Amino acid sequence: LFESSPLISHASNNSNCQPYRWHQWDSPTTQAFDELNKNVILALTQKEDMPLHSQLLTNIDTKGGGIGITSPRLKAIPSFILATKTTLDTIYNGVYLGKHHKRYILPQSITSLYENQASNPSQLLQLFNKFGPEIATVCTKKESNQMEPFISSTKLNICHEQVNTSIADRLQVDVISTFESDSKHNIEEILDGKLGQGLLDLPRYDQRNRQPNNLFRFNLLRCLRLNIWESIDAELICPLCKQNFDKKGDHLYQCSVIGKKTNTKMHDRWNSSWHEYMNRIMPLVKLADSKAMKEQTGLVKSLRGSRVRPFDSHINLPTISNDGHFRCKLNKIGFDIILCNSDTCPPPSRGGSDAKSNNITTSLIAAEKSKFQRGRATSKARTCHDTGITISGEEIIGDLYNSKMQLIPFAISPLGLFGPTINRFLYGKTIDSNNIHNINATSFPYAHKMAKRASSAEVPSNILERANDIWRRQHPTENFGRSYKSPDPSTYYTQLFGRDVCFANGSAGLEAIALLGDGPLTKSLPNYSCHNDAINFFTNCTDTNAFRRIIDGNAESSQPTVMTNVLTNAHSLDNRITT
Fold first, then answer.
1. What are the pLDDT digits (tens) for 468-495?
2. I need a surface site. Which of 49, 298, 417, 562 has the fewest CB within 10 A?
């Protein structure tokens, strides 16, 4: 079906797609598919319309920040070109009969039909000549003289991988250019991908992966950056903290009043989940032999006997290691979870004109800094009621540092983006600077040392990739997560992190909505609440116009099919996106 769409459109002189925009193929088939996908999403989210960025996020793979519903618009041209490539390879080089057999050369009566490829009037070859060079460049990564090696020697599986990668990259560029202003501050967070993986990639036979309808709908709205509140053009304010309020739900995690009610529950859910995951990951990578400890007291020597717990959870590294153990000179590695967010509508006093000072990456780094640098100054000390000992946060960090206990802040954003320090530990992502946290080494020497050591070779990194290698060697034919979508530990635990985003952060969002009562207020009418039927998360999704359109479409499908030229926003990218 995908392969035939370009030929049908070309035959009817309906191929206006430029070669460099091959992932935006437009035809009646693509329009019908996109309309169907759009109506399904509108029915689930109880919305009446989808902005262009949401339609693009629908097509982006879950690992890239979307929900992975593909469209002929993206695959029609590459599917046609790769099918034609296989045909031409057979015409020019013969029929492939196996690795140890010579190819069977086709007779002239067949090969003559494909002679003079460049000037051949065949519609198949005209379309191949138009789009083939672009697809060949993607598959061979060569800018010139790429057609012959593309046809004859480039393997199909390599071509499909390269095409899928190119589609993902192109869609991300397109969606970034179409984001509304209230999504510019957290682009990295939106495209991180954990939320989409938590929504869709884990098998539903495990009841822990099943979300209540209202929670699933809320998370889907957040994943596709659809408005939770509709207020036409009116600006909104929070009825609780009286600060600016966005339509996408970001303020639900920024409001100081709401945070007092929801942050502890979010933190505890993440802490419990991470503690559970460590008990399987750490023994697998040979980083620990014993179970992870949770909120243990007595780790600070000078405060033994008190209730001070410097870590949410930690692992004890073996004092004697064998050849299989991870080489590390530390005694303990502790994790401290912290939730953070960025400013959707930052006031001028907080650098509202400077997007960099308020984006999500900056907020994650600031959250990590607050864990390394405890207190505003070394002179700010507290007295432990249990022991009567007075000690500052800097001195506690110093005690941990000298005892070879490493602190790793586990910073988490509302949509599941992790901070750079935990990302390095889990995924091996490079930290750009030795002092990204901008800690004053003079005022906070131990905080500076602790942060610097966290990104050094003294602390293990990329442990999930190490887990992948070990699992593949020990279980070459088994999927780690008991599903083809979870083949290895890194993929599986990223999906579990996504599940935690859905349940911990999503549940906090629903609780925040309940705390708002009738919803945010409009600035022009301070006593008027922006309440909308779409925010009723207990409404059945079948009670929407979009769902009725799907039912009507199914009823019409029993009649003779007539393709109509139904134009949707997804097919106006050339008018909306500039290159």
1. 999 999 999 999 998 999 999 999 999 9
2. 562
Provide the CB-side half-sphere exposure for 307 (13 A, CA): 2
Mean per-residue pLDDT of the chain? 84
C-alpha count within 13 angstroms, C-beta hemisphere, residue 395: 13
Nearest Cα to Cα of residue 577 among 144, 173, 304, 306: 173
Residue 7: per-residue pLDDT: 57
pLDDT digits (tens, 9 = 90+) for 178-192: 999 889 888 999 999
C-alpha 192/C-alpha 61 separation (Å) is: 11
Instruction: Read off φ and ψ for residue 406, nearest 5 degrees.
Output: -100, 130
* Cβ-Cβ contacts under 8 Å for 299 (sequence gap 6 or more): 309, 310, 311, 314, 332, 334, 400, 403, 405
- Report strand pairing: 390-392 vs 236-237: unpaired
Measured CA to CA, the distance from residue 384 to residue 306 in angstroms comes to 7
Residues 6+ apart with CB under 8 A from 258: 240, 241, 252, 512, 515, 516
User: Does the CA dihedral 207-213-215-221 come out positive or negative?
Assistant: positive
| 161-to-46, 88, 156, 168, 196 alpha-carbon distances in Å | 35, 21, 9, 11, 21
User: Which contiguous run of DSSP H or E holds residue 321?
Assistant: none
The count of residues in the chain is 579
Contacts of 370 (CB under 8 A, 6+ apart): 338
Residue 60 and residue 68 in contact, taking contact as beta carbons nearer than 8 Å: yes
Token pair, residue 446, equals: 């131990």
Which residues are bridge partners to 383 per DSSP? 390
Q: Over the Cα atoms of the chain, what is R_g?
A: 28
Average of per-residue pLDDT across 77-105? 91
Q: Which pair of tokens denotes residue 509?
A: 């969002």
Q: Which of 336, 363, 357 is nearest to 450 (CA)?
A: 336
Q: What element of type H or E holds 315?
A: strand 313-316
The whole-angstrom separation of Cα 99 and Cα 258 is: 66
Paired with 410 in beta bridges are: 337
Phi-psi region of 98 (alpha: psi -120 to 50; beta: other; left: phi over 0): left
- Measure the CA–CA gap between 543 and 330, rounded to whole angstroms: 58
Among 106-110, 276-280, 552-556, whose mean pLDDT is lowest? 552-556
Kindly state the helix (H) or strand (E) to which residue 199 belongs, with its residue range: helix 194-200
Task: Please say if the pLDDT value at position 566 is more than 90.
Answer: no
398-443: pLDDT as tens digits: 999 999 999 999 999 999 999 999 999 999 998 877 789 999 999 9
Give the whole-angstrom CA distance, residue 300 versus residue 394: 12
Q: Residue 301, CB half-sphere, CA atoms under 13 Å: how many?
A: 10
The CA distance from 505 to 511, in Å, is 10
Helical spans, DSSP H, in 212-336: 213-223, 256-284
Helix (H) / strand (E) element for 443: namely none
Question: Using one digit for the tens of pLDDT, what is the confidence trace for 349-391?
Answer: 444 444 444 688 899 999 999 999 987 655 556 666 666 677 8
